[in-house]
Amino acid sequence: MRGTAQNSPKEGQKKKRLLAILLVLSLACSSAFAADKKLLIGVSIWSSTDTLGSQVKRILDAAADALGVNVMYVDQGHVSEQVTASAETLSAAGCDGMIICNSASAEMASVIKTCTKNKLYLAQFFRIIDKKANPNEYAAACKSPYYIGAVHENEIDNGKNLVKILCDKGSRTIALEGRKAGDATFLLRWEGYKQGIAIWNKAHPTDKATLLDPQYGGTTSDTGRSTAEAIINANHNIDALIVAGGGGDPLVGALAAIDSLGLKGKIRVVSTDFLSDLDQQLASGGMAAESGGHYADPLFAFMLVYNAIKGNYHKPANSFYEVTFPYLYVASSQDYDAYAKYFVDDLPYNADELRAMADLSEPNLAKKAASLSIQDVTQRRQ
Amino acid sequence: MREFYNKIKTTSLFGIAILVALAFFFWVFFKTLSPENFGSQRLMVGYLQTSIQYAVGGCGLYFIVVMGLFDFSIGANVVLSSLVGVLLSRHFGYWGLIMGCLLCGTLIGIFNGTLYSRLRIPSMIVTVGLMLVLESVANFVFTLDKSGFPGKLNSHNILAFNSAPWNYIAAGTAFLLMFLLLRFTKIGTYCNAIGSNELLAKNMGVNVERYKFIGFVLLHFFVGIMALLTVSYGSGMLPVTGMASMGRNFTPLMGTFFGIAFKRFGCPVTAIVIGEFIITMIFNGLVALNVPTTINAFVTGAVLLTIVSLTNRGRLGSVVK
């Protein structure tokens, strides 16, 4: 029996009843989650499941457990309209505050407006609004009583350091694979790579290095591989490749491309965002160096918002808090072993340390963020 | 002479000749502009290797696109089937990887087809909902992988489909199957008939609902093969959320457009394979010329539109669906 005309009214009613029961059950499930009346902090993130995103989720979940807070994640894929919509979604879901990793600073005008209107405390992670490039958004952030601050890495320094590592290792023609054009973090890193090249060339006028224009490989391993292959095929003389982020997946693809072309160890690869098998890659020559470990950055944005909701932090007049988070650099498998022990197998902060962190004043929280390193965790655990 | 030309114009050889000429034209164009970095024998093999995974997906899509349907859950199926394949490969090696991808893909096709025919909602709406469901399931499957490197094929012992000859064997088998289905079974004939005039096909006794269901199953079986090739090609797969898998739908679809455009020559499979190869060649050619990716996407889109409109332009007064 197929087709509407052939269905008896009884069958139709039966189907409708079944669908209604399914709908009620799914609503009941969601209301069971909503029944809990703890503080609720929203997290607007590009993805809570990719390499970096899942690490961010892991540390935020640990902090939320330690502090008795509920966390709600919205994956916005760094699509501008979804980024701005995520603030409305989290606000409608009854969040007391939210942290966000936006794609472009222009999105923040709408996000700040939504949060101010709905009295939702807001902090950025992995990002900060640039005063010169986005004066309107910066002014809105300063003016809003609900925009608490931003936690970010010094991406330009990160870019400079990676280029320095490559040049020191002997690379002179460096290709660049980004994730997508216009991404705020990529633009800062790119600026850092260019500055790194300029510094090197100034210091070594007879042995200059070149940085090629970027090609964009998206955020998946297969597009990462095809783009890396295209770059290498088009530039036979490159001796290094920078894969600038993308949550680690384009890097997986780029490494597969280099391996398949038989160039492993001949093209030095550096990147930001640690891989799960980084130790093997470093040992086999697949990777030359990597910066990362910054998955703890959102933890400090979370703490800013948590304290703002609790009334412990009062936003400075016509300004906001700015926390700079350090990158960790790993250039050998020995470096990685120490990193893996305290950052992969475990978290850099345990529950007691997270509770103590929540009691810190803002200047001390900023110092705490700046002091995070492999040595710092090693000392705390001994 | 004119009669002979009109006769040969409708043969599959003529269609294939146009496709080969197009591929040759783009090869000459980029080779002239970038002789060092484009189009050597080794590089052409590389372009083919990149394009075949999308061509396999394009073959699958042909079954439903030719009937006027569309499926937004292809990308989500690629992600989920890949993750199931990777998970099973931890325990059963290659058998787990192959069967995980193919069976999961086919089961999703059965599920999609059943929902489409039972709910009687347009395919676009059903498959958007299913895309979200499949993305969520993929996230759950990902958490089941306790290997320490979830979603990754990090051993060379499981990467045979990453390179020749096995990737060509898998893709070649899929193309052959597609050719046999279209040429020697009722499925191909009825799919084309439904696409040309659904009401007429129904009145002629074709069970339209059944063939639409079969179309979905075949599509997702081919997507299962695409998942096997994609996860091997990228050495891994990670789950995504918020419709981020949708981007994976469109590269295979571009190949399908070639297939639809060259359907009248009777060579849709060849058109899909060569079409995807041309798209990959254009991408690599523009990278060789150091053209920014944004311009690259623009050129690829424009070329696709030009080729399809030139080869598939409807006659005056014909109805364009």
Overview of this protein structure:
The complex is a heterodimer of chains A (382) and B (321). Chain A has helices spanning 9-34, 51-67, 80-92, 107-117, 135-143, 155-168, 184-203, 221-234, 249-260, 278-284, 297-310, 333-344, 351-358, 362-370, 374-381; strands at 39-45, 69-75, 97-100, 121-125, 147-153, 173-178, 210-211, 215-216, 240-243, 268-272, 289-292, 321-325, 328-330. Chain A has 382 residues and is an alpha/beta fold. Chain A folds into 2 domains: 36-153 and 295-328 and 348-381, Rossmann fold; 156-273, Rossmann fold, CATH 3.40.50.2300. In chain A, the strands form 2 sheets. In chain A, strands 6, 7, 8, 9, 10, 11 and 13 form a 7-stranded mixed beta sheet that branches. Chain A has a 6-stranded parallel beta sheet with strand order 2-1-3-4-5-12, sandwiched between helices. In chain A, 53% of the residues are buried. Chain B is mainly α and 321 residues long. Chain B has a single domain (12-311), classed as ABC transporter involved in vitamin B12 uptake, BtuC, CATH 1.10.3470. Chain B has helices at 2-8, 12-33, 41-65, 74-119, 123-144, 166-184, 186-196, 198-203, 208-233, 247-261, 268-288, 293-311. In chain B, helix 3 (41-65) packs parallel to helix 6 (166-184), helix 3 runs antiparallel to helix 9 and helix 10 (247-261) packs across helix 11 (268-288). Chains A and B meet through strand 8, helix 8 and helix 9 of A and helix 3, helix 9 and helix 11 of B.
Using the CA coordinates, give the radius of gyration of chain A. Answer: 23 Å
- Overall tally of structural domains of chain B: 1
Highest-level CATH class of the largest domain in chain A? Alpha Beta
Q: What is the number of helical segments of chain A per DSSP (H or I, 4+ residues)?
A: 15
Task: Give the overall shape of chain B, derived from the CA principal axes.
Answer: globular
Number of helices of chain B: 12
In the predicted model, the low-confidence regions of chain A spanning at least 5 consecutive residues are: 1-6
CATH class of chain B: Mainly Alpha
Hey, which two chains have the biggest interface? Answer: A-B, 48 and 47 residues
**Average pLDDT, all residues of chain B:** 88
Regions of chain B with pLDDT < 50 over 5+ consecutive residues? none
Ends apart, CA distance between termini of chain B? 35 Å
Fraction in beta strands of chain B: under 5%
CATH topology name of the largest domain in chain A: Rossmann fold
Proportion of beta-strand residues of chain A: 15-25%
